[in-house]
């Protein structure tokens, strides 16, 4: 079982009619994935302020906290600690800047698994 990694926000729950409905509701509330000339940006789950850490796990130091409604770039992804969030349980961590990672369980990417190259 994963750990919760958000700093503030609603408690993730499973819908009585299935997880897909809950995930679809979160996706609609999260907004769109933005693709521009400067790259693609993915929304953080609505209602959450997510910790940004120096590595792929909750034992790594927090360097900042993303504000509500933030959209982030994902440069590469790395396996690490399993975390449970509004988009399920995942061991993927998204690199959003040099030495800065967020749990993929709090980022709406539109699918499970890797959506970016693996980090070295």
The rough form would be described as globular
Mean pLDDT: 83
Helix content: 10-25%
Could you give the count of β-strands? Answer: 9
What is the SS-derived class?
A: mainly beta
Strand order of the largest sheet: 1-4-5
Number of domains: 1
Q: Please count the helical segments.
A: 1
InterPro entries: SH3-like_bac-type
Pfam families: SH3_3
Protein name: SH3b domain-containing protein
Region (Disordered): 1-20
Short account of what is shown:
The chain is mainly β. The chain contains one helix and nine strands; from the N terminus they run E-H-E-E-E-E-E-E-E-E.
Describe the fold and architecture.
Residues 1-20 are annotated as: Disordered. Residues 50-81 form the SH3b domain. InterPro entries: SH3-like_bac-type. The chain has one domain (6-106). The chain is mainly beta and 120 residues long. It is 10% helix and 39% strand. It is globular. The protein contains 1 helix and 9 strands; from the N terminus they run E-H-E-E-E-E-E-E-E-E. The strands form 3 sheets. It has a 3-stranded antiparallel β-sheet, with no helix packed on it. The protein has a 3-stranded antiparallel β-sheet with strand order 2-3-6, with no helix packed on it.
């Amino acid at each position: 079982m994963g750990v919760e990694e958000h700093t503030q926000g609603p408690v993730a729950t499973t819908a009585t009619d299935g997880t897909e409905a809950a995930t679809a509701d979160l996706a609609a509330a999260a907004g769109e994935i933005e693709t521009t000339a400067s790259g693609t940006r993915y929304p953080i789950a609505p209602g959450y302020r997510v910790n940004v850490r120096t590595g792929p796990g909750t034992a790594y130091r927090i360097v900042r906290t993303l504000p509500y409604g933030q959209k982030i770039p994902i440069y590469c992804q790395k396996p690490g600690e399993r975390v449970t969030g509004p988009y399920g349980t995942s061991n993927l961590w998204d690199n959003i800047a040099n030495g800065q990672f967020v749990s993929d369980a709090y980022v709406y990417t539109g699918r499970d698994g890797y959506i970016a190259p693996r980090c070295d």
